[in-house]
Amino acid sequence: MTLHLPVAPGPGPAGTDPSSAGAQAAGVQVLVCGSPDRGDDGVAVAAAAMIRDQLPDGVRMRTVGQLDIDDLLAVPAAVGVVIVDAASGLRPGQIVDLPLTSHAVGLPEVVALAELIQGRPVHGRIVAVGAVDFGLGSALSRPVAAAMPGLVLAILGAITEVRTTLPREQGL
What we know:
The protein is of the alpha/beta class and 172 residues long. It has helices at 43-51, 69-73, 108-118, 142-146, 148-165, and strands at residues 3-4, 27-33, 59-65, 79-88, 95-99, 124-130. The protein has five helices and six strands; from the N terminus they run ββαβαββαβαα.
C-alpha cells in the first residue's frame, strides 16, 4: 500500500523518546508496508531491517506488503499497532507520525471497519515518509535514503507512544 497524504501534517508526538521505558510495557505489532523491488515503496522494509534487533520486548514486526483489513483484524485485542509505509503527497523525505485514525492518511474507513468487526477500538499510529519513485528497482531515491535515520527514530518513537498510551483495558 502506498499512502496518499493530501496535506503535510505536523510532526509526531512531542517529547517521544524511543529509549525511555514506559509506565506500561504493552504489546505492539509493527505492520511494514511496501515492496522492496519498487523504489521508494521499499523504504519501510529497509527501515524494518535496520531496527529488527532494537525492538523492545512485546513488539513484533510483520511485513504485510499492501495493507489489508485482514492485517488489522489479525492484531490481538491487547496489542497496539504501528503501520510504516511510503507516501505520495508529502515532500520527498518528509516523515510524518500520525494517529491511526487521522483523516489525512485515508485509513479511517478501514480502521472503522476493523473496529466494527472486532467490537473494539484499534489503537495505533502510522509513520510514513514522502516518496518520489515507485518504479521498478530496489534503489531508494536520494531524499528517501537521506531520511532513513529519521524514519528509524520515528518508528521507534511511535512504538513507544503506542506502548505507553494503549488504553488500560487493552494493555498487558
